[in-house]
Specification:
The structure holds two protein chains of two kinds. Chain A contains 13 helices and four strands. By secondary structure, chain A is an alpha+beta fold. In chain A, a hairpin with a 2-residue loop joins β3 and β4. The longest helix of chain A has 30 residues. Chain A is globular, with a radius of gyration of 18 Å. Chain A has two domains: 75 residues, 3-Layer(aba) Sandwich (Glutaredoxin), CATH 3.40.30; 166 residues, Up-down Bundle (Glutathione S-transferase Yfyf (Class Pi), Chain A, domain 2), CATH 1.20.1050.10. A four-stranded mixed β-sheet of chain A has the order 2-1-3-4. Chain B is an alpha+beta fold. Chain B has one domain: Glutathione S-transferase Yfyf (Class Pi), Chain A, domain 2. In chain B, 50% of the residues lie in helices and 6% in strands. Chain B contains ten helices and four strands, in the order βαβαββαααααααα. Chain B is globular, with a radius of gyration of 17 Å. The N and C termini of chain B lie far apart (37 Å). The chains are: A alpha+beta, B alpha+beta. At the A-B interface, α3, α4, α7 and α8 of A face α3, α4 and α7 of B. Bound molecules: glutathione (2 copies).
Chain lengths: 259, 238
């Protein structure tokens, strides 16, 4: 039995959903409503005591690190291979995923959550917010939520995240000017890892992600958005992500590509 | 193959352990981190991150130690070290990631404080040649990490000890019944804990002895001392 406890097809939360759809592996989607802080509630903490999503449970084996879990999925199930064969290409795939997970995705998360989540806490009862914070198991997570709830993210940190995201956009555009996919000639987990946070950038960062400024990244985004597997995963959302992805497909002119 | 490494670098030690496990002797180029040779323009021309290790193989320059370990395991499959089944491999890779996000960055900070790290003025001139994020991390170190950061780093290291003990509760090795790249990646960092006054749970202390007894580790044991240098950047958002 394969169960994925997660939120929307977005960022880390979305990685297993994209990966399983690309491989064509059936699974049960257990929706965890991050907006309602369900990932910090006892039912989910019983699955992942760290209170982070996703949690993937395969025949009683629980995985809470999404990138190693994607490699597990590629190894444990039939379907198209999502890792190149050549060791050097695999090195490229893994280094890129590490850069994404440790540098780019947290920067984007800082930017997006300060824009979208932080304003929602303004005016809420501070004691109630403290009670919510107390339920968060990992100290490093508690400190990011505290910054969001009390509008305390230093502006310099956000500016630094902006710099890193812009830098990554340029870097990926450069790779994609030489290669068809991020780790070479075949679609791989590196593409999934980046797409999971980059799918919405033609709208969210229109100034940098457009046909004039980053043509190769745009070519790649069109190719990803047109893939039936990635599209099917994006359609599983219950909130704004699915609509957002449809708007992006419209904008990129790939609306019907995999319909 | 040519490995750029430094004595005292835990990430370098992991790569050398795996080479020894495979019975391969790469050509070695030693850097002196005590004198900040990793920030010299000659080395930065090879590796712009200004960190070790770096492996030159087939005309390419490979950095990021856990990805190097996997590269070696795939290029030289005997003996296999990533784990015998998908579950073991997941656990080995989980530790390969945890060491970068939670152990090494916090160890670097605790170590800098414990060893009273400092950077001489002539070495500080070299900071301008580093990538902005490496330069910023070094400037923080030179200023001295604040009490709050030190407390968080110490807490993270103790938490890492508990987590290691959890996976070692019923197993000799982190991923189960076989030594894997996970053990090789984590060991050189945790081997520094006790020297720096950071206690480890009993199960971890036993595992440290088990790893230390391997001939691959014996061969480099003189290089396992702590040096006051930075590691990977601590997470900026959670
Ligand atoms: N190390 C985990 C981290 C997962 C993670 O950061 N998930 C985010 C959602 S994308 C999360 O749980 N955020 C909620 C929180 O931190 O409270 C992985 O790489 O999969
Ligand atoms: N992510 C890198 C980290 C390498 C790293 O942090 N190396 C340390 C020594 S263990 C270093 O070179 N520090 C010197 C400096 O930052 O100046 C890897 O896995 O190889």
């Amino acid at each position: 039995m394969l169960e994925v406890h997660t939120w929307e097809p977005n960022a880390n939360s979305g990685k297993p959903l994209f990966c399983l759809h690309e491989k064509g592996v059936p699974f049960t989607y257990r929706y965890v409503d991050m907006g309602a802080h369900e990932h910090h509630a006892p039912a989910f903490l019983a699955v992942n005591p760290d209170g982070t999503i996703p949690a993937i449970v395969h025949d009683g084996f629980t995985m809470t690190e999404s990138t190693p879990a994607m490699e597990y999925i590629d190894e444990a199930f039939a379907g198209p291979a999502l890792r190149p064969k050549d060791p050097f290409r695999r090195w490229q795939m893994r280094v890129l995923m590490r850069f994404m997970d440790n540098v780019v995705a947290p920067s984007l998360a800082m930017i997006a959550s300060n824009r979208l989540a932080a304003p929602r806490f303004a005016g809420e009862d501070p004691d109630e917010l403290r009670r919510k914070l107390d339920r968060i198991p990992l100290p490093e997570r508690r400190s990011t939520w505290e910054k969001l709830m009390f509008q305390a993210t230093p502006p310099d940190d956000i500016a630094e995240s902006e710099r890193r995201v812009s830098d990554a956009i340029r870097r990926f555009d450069g790779i994609l000017s030489r290669e068809e996919w991020l780790a070479g000639e075949s679609f791989s987990l590196a593409d999934i890892c980046v797409f999971a946070t980059f799918y919405g950038l033609p709208l969210a960062r229109e100034d940098e992600v457009n046909d004039a400024a980053s043509p190769h990244l745009m070519r790649w985004l069109r190719a990803c958005h047109a893939r039936p597997g990635l599209q099917a995963a994006l359609k599983m959302g219950k909130g704004f992500v699915t609509q957002r992805a449809a708007d992006v497909r419209q904008k990129l002119g790939v609306a019907e590509a995999a319909a | 193959m040519l490995l750029h490494y430094a004595p005292g670098s835990a990430h370098s030690a992991a790569v050398r352990i795996v080479f020894a496990e495979k019975g391969i002797e790469p050509e070695l180029r030693k850097l002196d981190m005590v004198h900040f040779e990793q920030h010299s323009s000659a080395y930065l021309a090879i590796n712009c991150h200004g960190t070790v290790p770096l492996l030159e193989a087939e005309g390419r320059k490979l950095f990021e130690s856990f990805a190097i370990l996997e590269y070696l395991d795939e290029t030289y499959p005997e003996p296999p070290l990533i784990g015998g089944d998908p579950r073991q491999r997941y656990i080995a890779r989980k530790w390969g990631k945890y060491v970068e996000t939670h152990i090494a960055p916090n160890l670097a900070i605790a170590r800098w404080a414990a060893l009273h790290g400092r950077m001489p003025a002539e070495a500080q001139a070299g900071l301008a040649n580093l990538l902005p994020e490496r330069c910023a991390l070094w400037l923080r170190a030179i200023d001295g990490f604040d009490r709050e950061q030190l407390a968080a780093s110490t807490h993270a290291i103790l938490a890492a000890g508990q987590r290691l003990a959890g996976d070692l509760a019923n197993n000799p090795w982190l991923a189960g019944d076989a030594f894997t790249l996970g053990d090789a990646a984590v060991y050189p960092h945790v081997a520094q804990f006790e020297t720096l006054g950071l206690p480890v749970p009993a199960a971890v202390a036993e595992w440290l002895r088990r790893v230390a007894a391997r001939p691959s580790v014996q061969a480099i044991r003189e290089d396992l001392f702590p040096v006051a240098v930075m590691g990977p950047e601590p997470g900026r958002w959670g």
